[in-house]
Amino acid sequence: MTTPVREVVKHAKAASRFLSTVSCHQRTAPIRAAATAIHQARKSLLEANERDLAAARAMLASGEISSSTFERLQLTPKKMEAMMQSMLAVAELADPLGRVLQRTELDSDLVLEKLTVPLGLLAVIFEARPDAVTQIAALAMKSGNGVILKPGREVEQTAAELVSIIQSSYESSELPAGAVTLVNGRESVLALLGMPELIDMVIPRGSRQLVEFVQANTRIPVLGHSEGVCHIYVDAAADFPMALDIIDDSKTDYPAACNAAETVLVHQGIAETFLPMLVERMQSRGVQLHGCARARAIQRDDSVTAVPNGDWHHEYSDLELAVRVVGSAAEAIDHIHRYGSSHTETIVTEDRAVAESFLAQVDAAGVFHNASTRFADGYRYGFGAEVGISTSKLHARGPVGLDGLTTYKYVLRGSGQVVRSYHPPDGKGFTHKRLPTN
Known about the structure:
438 residues, alpha/beta, Aldehyde Dehydrogenase, Chain A, domain 1, Aldehyde Dehydrogenase, Chain A, domain 2, 7-stranded parallel β-sheet
């Protein structure tokens, strides 16, 4: 008989409280063990994934899922190797817990410390991403958080096999299996979202519809982003070969990723020369271009079609790219702020002053100069992995690794002091002396 979701959550909450008390070594060893076990279980994992793929092919044919979703779902030996290496990279990171962020003497023998601690219990709702299981499990364990995983039905078989392997590794390390657990079924989503007294954060990883649904149906803090509408602005002072390489990589390296470029903005001063070069490069890579009236007028053929429905705030997640001619860097920035999603924005230019102005003015989680938008990734940032990318300005922003899964608490150590001793006008004064944190 299936265990009720609330009982699963209560068990996971208890496990999360236990994890917050164990040493860094006790949290690191099971991550390495799980990575090894996943490597050894490649055959069973591929078999489980093939069962998911068989069902997903029918869903793809009926239009229930997109080709990009199907691509994310498919588990390959290369992806499994990357999953294992990501877990091992997380294991090697410094302990994020128990760091003293600030130490203050309030009075003699009365010292206040600000310490990093886990968030508690995470609920992660994701679609078609087998690697989400390993990334999140490793990051949650290293940061002392419990985690409940709710996969989409298209990835349930693969997720169940991965969680079973990870749980066995945790139990072998004398940690509770409830530190990472799995729930299935659509009804479990609303059940999870209705438990703010037990779950400390919800992390949705999937479509805009999923993220918006989660945000609209819970009082639990939500970490994530709804879209990845990323831009590349090619300035008048851009190096053309560099710009073409950056656009190519940002669009075609992994079109379904949230950090793939969706719009290229081209300065009018170079548009006549640069746009034909861009069209040729994108056509060679199988990319369909959509453009503004000025871009289409420059080409004067059908190589650049109109932007569908005039929608510049669109995440294609495929080999499609929008192009717009702008009059200046300021106009490019205005376009980004109007149509972007605060994810990742890039400028390509050799003009340092223009670049620095762009980096300072653009309001996004990631702002790059002469670099592909695809660098917006926890592993590439050196976080080992990520639980997702946040476009929020509160708590965590950009790729969320270990630091984004911690908060802090204040610990006060005294020797019998009471507040009334400090009441004015005759009370003692506070020293408020900053002390070293190491």
